[in-house]
Amino acid sequence: MSESSVTPAVTPWQRVVGTGIALSLVVGVILLAFAWPSLTASPRGVPIGIVGEGPAAEQVTAAVGANADDAIELISYEDRDAAVAAVERREAYGAIVLPANPAAPGAAPEVLKATAGSAQVAGILDGLAARVQDQVDEQIRAQVEAMSAQTPGPVTIPRVKVTVTDLVPFAESDSTGAGLAVAMFPLVLGGVIGGVVLTLTVSGAVRRVVGVVVYAAAAGLVLAGVLQGWVGGLQGNFWANVLALALAVGAISSTVTGLTSLFGRVGTGLGAIVMVLFANPISAASVPVQFLLQPWGAIGQLLPPGAAGTLLRDLSYFPAADATGPWLLLSVWFVVGLALTSVDLSARRAAARRAVQITA
């Protein structure tokens, strides 16, 4: 029988059907991983400051409690300066500042917000400003009616307008904050791809460690050049952003290579899945941490994508915020990943198996 007459082997129908079903499940898992945080996002305990005391503060607190359904946690501050400092340190997303003397001419409440901290919370604060304005109008209307009943003739209606002050708006080059939000997925994907490619193309533990370090440094420079120098998605000190991006890419890449060192090719896939399908969706890059179901929001901040998103936002818009935590987390992930990569247990186990086979 000639070779041309040999019928090539075909895939069994069971395997074809099983592969199709398995792939559909994979697609479903991917969709669920990325859609679930957004679909379940809801504000819970968002810290908002309040300045003032007395009946006015009690009325605002009661109104917030009645309408917010535990979405807002009011934190009392001594004065406006203290509230502003808290917003700039990212300890609060905004504040309601009530006048010390409501009866003084021109005295009006003020609502502070930081759009760059969260556009969603800024929208909530705009709604709070409208409710406070309704309360002020109602109080003025009641006072005018009381005065009209006691004093005949025309009554002057005072004009009190609640002001809204955006303490930290987005930069003109990224007026909606889209550049900062969409940068996270390419950052995570780039870190994973770097780890996978270095795993497949570089042999030797030391060489792989050097490859991760060089890739992280170069990627940090390239990403900062694109995000800050070209599209304007990042603000602040350029070299600080370069270092933050390099640490983020290095932390993700070294995690992939480190897990490969521990578990072989299974570790490569595990690292990619954890970073892309788990860590990235709960990174709070597009919504505040308080919008995510707990404890997932808090867990996300302990992983490289979440720490990177927080650090880049701090560097761009909140220089007064304490960024020690994100810097430390990214550094620890990077160093631990490099340490695991340098050990290369998987290669050692493979070498031991080959030695046993040769001696046998």
From TrEMBL:
ABC-2 type transporter transmembrane domain boundaries: 24-341
Source organism, top-level taxon: Bacteria
Pfam families: ABC2_membrane_3
Subcellular location(s) per record: Membrane
Residues that span the membrane, as ranges: 16-36, 178-200, 212-232, 238-263, 270-293, 327-347
InterPro entries, per database record: ABC2_TM
Key words, A-Z: Membrane, Transmembrane, Transmembrane helix
Membrane topology term: Multi-pass membrane protein
Protein name: ABC transporter permease
Organism, scientific name: Microbacterium istanbulense
